[in-house]
Amino acid sequence: MGIIYRKKKITLNYKEEKPEVYKIAKIVMPKVSYDELLKDVAHAEGVNDTAALAVVRGLLNRMEVFLGLGHSVSLGEFGTFSPNLRVCVTQTIDDANANTIKKKHIRFIPGARLRDVIKNMSVNEADGLSVKE
Questions:
Q1: Is residue 96 in a domain?
Q2: Distance between CA atoms of residues 104 and 87, nearest Å
C-alpha cells in the first residue's frame, strides 16, 4: 500500500500577507507493536513465538553491550547502529571536553535493503480525505 497522504490547506503566518497554501501530509498508520512483530516473524519463519523472542532478546542484549562499549553494530542489509554525540563548539582546544557534549544518541544508517524498500514504496492520495479547511 505504501505511504498514504492527504492534501492540507495551511496559512503562512510568518509572512505579512499571510497567504494560504497547500501541502500534502502523510497519514500516520498504526504502529506495529513489538509483540505483533515477534509473532509475525515467528509465523513467517516457521518457528514458535518463544524461539523468535529468544533470538530477538539475544540480539538486543548483545547490541546493547557492543554499543555500550562504543562499537557500531551492523545488521547487514538492514543497517548499522552507531553511538554518536551532539556537541557544542568551543573557541579553544582546551575548552573542548566531555562537558561540551549536548547529547549522546544512537545513529541508524539504513542498509541497502531498507533503502530499496523506501525507494520503491508507492505514494498515494487517500480517497475522500483531501483539502481539510
A1: yes
A2: 9
Which residues fall within 8 angstroms of residue 11, CB to CB, at 6 or more apart? 18, 19, 20, 21
pLDDT tens digits, 57-113: 999 999 999 999 999 999 999 999 999 999 999 999 999 999 999 999 999 999 999
Q: Can you tell me which residue has the cell 542484549?
A: 61
Whole-angstrom Cα distance, residue 67 to residue 88? 23
Structural domain span for residue 107: 72-120
Q: Structurally, how many domains does the chain consist of?
A: 1
C-alpha 50: how far from its chain's center?
27
Is the per-residue pLDDT at 130 higher than 50? Answer: no
